[in-house]
Amino acid sequence: MHLNKITLNPEHYPTNDYYPFNLPIFHQTKEIPFESPVTFFVGENGTGKSTLLEAITHACGIHIWRNPEGMRYKRNPYEKAMHYFLRVEWANGRVPGSYFSSDTFRYFSYAVDEWAVNDENQLNYFGGKSLVTQSHGQSLMAYFSSRYQIRGLYLIDEPETALSAKSLLELLHLLQGMAAAGHAQFIIATHSPILMACPGAGIYSFDQTPVEKITYRETSHYQIYQDFFTNQDKLFPETGSKPLTG
Q1: How far is it, in rounded angstroms, from Cα 226 to Cα 191?
Q2: Where are the domains of the chain?
Q3: In sequence order, what DSSP letters do the residues of 120-182 get, joined into one string?
Q4: Distance from the CA of 17 to the CA of which of 94, 135, 140, 190 falls in 20 to 30 A?
């Protein structure tokens, strides 16, 4: 374990009117301990899990590769300020790491390509091929397979967005292997029941206030998928029997 826990300090929040400081979950959740090398943040969209993941990234001093933002109609002055009100507790001192999200990965991929113009050996750190010239899913797996072999703390936001079920299983095995080796710690916001099945992982639900630790089968994601596959014939009795018509 590299990161033991995070502590939130709602008494110091600068506002209660703007996101994310207007979410009750960030007022009633005081701390989140990390007791497993793999931890999942799960919950519906808008519950704050990705926002907290990004805040932890900043609080840990990990850079987020992001294209500079242009003009916006209305800018929330507080949307990127949560990390100022988090305290992180390291196990044995700070370690390096990285942050992944689909919306930042494309920008990072082009940055790597620019480095390779002057030194093509830079590509060796990311699977040996240009990330830009591969499909989105292939480039993600090339990045994951190379980067996550290095000791560190890895924060990952919804990696399933561009991955097939087969690739998700590959990522699941990668997480298991690196966690078992004791080199890497992962904190992952996800909707994927395949990834959540990682043995021994901790799962925190953002559907409860405060954030609550739950089991895999208690997640709404597992229950919805199980109900769908169990009752598919009842829900969609014509599936597979005849083509859909307009």
Answers
A1: 14
A2: 3-235
A3: GGGGGGGTSS-STTS-HHHHHHHHHHHHTTSSEEEEEE-GGGG--HHHHHHHHHHHHHHHHHT
A4: 190
- Kindly report, residue by residue over 223-245, the tens digit of the pLDDT: 998 988 888 777 777 655 555 55
Quick one: which H or E segment has residue 38?
strand 38-42
User: Could you tell me the CA-to-CA distances from 134 to 27, 104, 109, 121 in Å, in that order?
Assistant: 43, 16, 10, 17
The amino acid that residue 194 corresponds to is I
What is residue 102's predicted lDDT score, i.e. its pLDDT? 83
CB 43 within 8 A of CB 49: yes
Residue 173 pLDDT: 93
Q: What is the mean pLDDT of residues 116-133?
A: 82
pLDDT in tens, 2-28: 999 999 999 999 999 999 999 999 999
Q: Is the pLDDT of residue 185 over 80?
A: yes
Structure tokens belonging to residue 63: 């850079």
CATH architecture of 3-235: 3-Layer(aba) Sandwich (3.40)
- Residue reference for tokens 């954030």: 211
